[in-house]
Amino acid sequence: MATNPKLPDFPDIPPRKPTSEPAKLHLVRQSKFPWPIVALIVGAALLVTIISVLPKAPRVARTPSGAEVPRQPTGEQIQLTQVQIVPSPVGDSLYLNAILHNTGNSAITGVQVNAQFMGADGAVAGGTTAAVQGVSGGTSSEDLTQAPIKPNESRPVRIYFAHTPKGWNHQVPALTVTTVTGTTP
Fold first, then answer.
1. Is residue 97 part of a domain?
2. What percent helix, strand, coil does the chain show, rounded to 5?
3. What is the pLDDT of residues 32-49, one digit of tens each?
4. Is 53 a domain residue?
5. What is the pLDDT of residues 111-162, one digit of tens each?
6. Of 31, 42, 90, 132, which residue is most buried, by most CB within 10 angstroms?
7. Which CATH number fits the domain that encloses residue 97?
């Protein structure tokens, strides 16, 4: 077997560098602009913006002072006149028809009265509470929330008592306004 001392030629192979030449270190060029300082300034600006925009505590509505609270309707602004007894056709129930005068400055949407029925001897035979209803069309009752009684207005009303006490003297009972509801105009 014959050996050929000649090596094949490869045209693309670069020549070897001598080992005596020192290795070169490639350094990355640094920019002269101070990017870390700019990033810190932008971050601080964002932090200040977020803190100033977010609320510090829940916002609580200010409660009105005594001068700002509208006057609520009271029994003093209700006057019942021309009270008449209308017997009910059934059992011991009773209707009282009257004229209700609103002397206050708020519309009345509900009235409740307490009736003290007197006995033949002048002592209280019993008492009960009932709601006042408006009268529409002369015979039918309607709730005052549907048709409030405006300030300085008078309207026929009806009070229904489901049971009257035994021993009642059949006179108009003593009426006391216990509850009044209304709206301000």
1. yes
2. 10, 35, 50
3. 888 889 999 999 999 999
4. no
5. 888 888 888 887 888 888 888 888 877 677 788 778 888 888 888 888 888 8
6. 132
7. 2.60.40
Residue 113 in domain: yes
Residue 129, domain member (yes or no) = yes
Domain range enclosing 177: 75-183
**Burial of 154 by CB count in 10 Å (0-12 exposed, 13-18 middle, 19+ buried)?**
middle
Question: How many domains does the chain fold into?
Answer: 1
Of 66, 147, 72, the residue nearest 104 (C-alpha) = 72
Give the range among 69-73, 103-107, 150-154, 155-159 with minimum mean pLDDT: 69-73
Q: How far apart are the C-alpha atoms of 177 and 155, rounded to whole Å? A: 16
Residue of 102, 99, 96, 97 whose CA lies nearest to 75: 102
- Residue 182 to residue 90: CA distance in whole angstroms: 33
Report the candidate in 81, 72, 75 with the shortest Cα–Cα distance to residue 112: 75
Contact 168, 76 (CB under 8 A): no
Overall pTM surpassing 0.85 (yes/no): no
- Element (H or E) spanning 178, and its range? strand 174-183
